[in-house]
Write a structure and sequence with these properties.
It is a single chain. The chain is about 15% helix and about 45% strand. The longest helix is centred in the N-terminal third of the chain and has 20 residues, at about 20-40. The chain contains eight helices and 16 strands. The chain has two domains: about 20-60, no CATH class; about 150-430, Beta Barrel (Porin), CATH 2.40.160. The protein has about 450 residues and is α+β, with helices and mostly antiparallel strands.
Length: about 450
């Protein structure tokens, strides 16, 4: 019955709406064009002449990303444990000049919301294996809002202040990316740092020193013909904690300076970045950590003032698209060194290959493979051993392939193998599927 209805009634409707001949062909071509546009447009709702395009012309850009994760422990401790969850990201960018308000002023806002569950803290790894869900969690902070105001002082100099999302900043790094939403998932790659420092005795979660996921502070960027210089100052604590916004810089301040020098080898782009940072905040003194209870009781020698960290990073394209220089793949590496006390990570290193698939029609696909190692400081490991808590430095590897079904629908397969810092736990293998839809 349904087939007969479609066979006889549908042609009648079409003949009324689109009479004959050229009009019919024109409608057919229009439908085909719309379908091709849907498959090639950047986001699902960014249709030609649509609301997003009209807002963009007025100076406002909006994006909504929904990223779903299914990740589990395929082998190792807690073998068979798996979790499903996701993350909602809403991005709003406003250009005040296009809005007729202020020349060179831009406002960037990002809202994040946690969905479901994740595998973090259900295994025995020190570094989160799912960075995108590691810091916005139901039992911690269910959602987060970042807001940054940038003033372009000249063509070369810009200044920004606000609450920064460090993972979103990391996602702008060539080749390796960051943020855990479309490239590597492990925090070692998605938000590289030398580790966690504690600004005062108490909860470790809100005292991240070297690379907190949310930062309250300001930045200045100067671009010259030979290099790009950055200077950043911030409250050393995690700005997801409301107290940081209520009483900023009460525990101290952190300052980070860096320079990025572009290079070319055989016509292929590369970047060298050197950074150094210092914070005057206080952290746990890791010397004699075995006597921590005694020191806490007397409040003597519990903290130590000052943190420093230095890093050197290289990104070098090995293959580039001749027509799109930013599309290609190559080598990345990062080495970091810290004081080792009160910073519990003395050094870290990561390296690998990543970029785009340059096969015809697949240059939106991303892939990567890399390894990392976090060298924990001796005072921490020996102090824990005195308390019969046996730990070690942690390392591992990760490989992923991000298949762009369309530019706005991406499916990623991810594999991680981690040697956890818990000594009596075996090497763990993690497998994950990640589906991202961009509206």
């Amino acid at each position: 019955m349904a087939r007969r209805f479609l066979k006889y009634f549908l042609p009648m409707v079409v003949s009324v709406l689109v009479p004959h001949g050229a009009k019919a062909e024109e409608a057919k071509g229009s439908n085909k064009g719309a379908f091709v546009s849907l498959l090639s447009q950047k986001t699902l709702t960014d249709i030609p002449g649509g609301p997003k395009e009209r807002l963009r012309r007025a100076g406002i850009e909006t994006d909504v990303w929904v990223t779903q994760f299914f990740q589990g422990v395929a082998a190792g401790a807690n073998n068979g444990v798996s979790r499903y969850g996701g993350k909602l990201d809403v991005f709003v960018k406003a250009d005040a000049e296009k809005l007729g308000l202020w020349r060179g002023l831009r406002v960037n806002a990002q809202y994040e919301h946690y969905i479901g569950d994740n595998i973090n803290q259900k295994d025995y790894a020190l570094v989160p294996v799912n960075a995108a869900q590691a810091f916005v969690a139901q039992d911690n902070y269910h959602s987060a809002l970042s807001l940054v105001v940038t003033q372009q002082m000249s063509e070369r100099l810009s200044m920004s202040v606000g609450k920064f999302n460090a993972m979103t900043l990391a996602s702008q790094t060539p080749l390796i990316g960051g943020g855990g939403l479309d490239a590597f998932m492990n925090r070692a790659f998605a938000l590289p740092s030398t580790g966690v420092g504690v600004a005062s005795p108490g909860t470790v979660a809100d005292r991240l020193i070297v690379s907190p996921p949310y930062i309250l502070g300001g930045a200045a960027t100067l671009k010259t013909d030979v290099a790009t210089f950055n200077l950043f100052f911030a409250d050393p604590r995690n700005a997801a904690n409301p107290r940081v916004l209520e009483r900023p810089f009460e525990r101290g301040v952190g300052v980070v300076g860096g320079v990025t020098v572009p290079t070319q080898i055989a016509g292929l782009k590369g970047f060298h970045t050197v950074r150094g940072g210092y914070s005057n905040a206080r952290g746990f003194d890791l010397d004699d950590i075995g006597e921590l209870r005694t020191r806490l009781a007397s409040l003597v020698g519990v903290t130590k003032k000052g943190f420093w960290v230095a890093s050197y990073a290289i990104q070098q394209y090995l293959v580039q698209n001749a027509e799109k220089p930013n599309v290609g793949w190559g080598l990345f590496t990062l080495g970091t060194l810290s004081d080792g006390n009160p910073n519990p990570v003395r050094w870290s290193v990561l390296a690998g290959l990543a970029g785009n698939n340059l096969l015809p029609g697949r240059d939106n696909d991303q892939w990567g493979v890399g390894f990392f190692h976090y060298g924990l400081t001796t005072p921490l490991l020996s102090g824990l051993a005195e308390r019969r808590l046996y730990r070690r430095s942690e390392g591992g590897m990760e490989a992923f392939y991000n298949w762009a079904i369309t530019p706005w629908l991406r499916l990623t397969g991810d594999l991680q193998i981690v040697e956890p810092w818990t000594v009596n736990r075996p090497r763990a293998t993690y497998m994950a599927l990640r589906l991202q839809t961009r509206f």
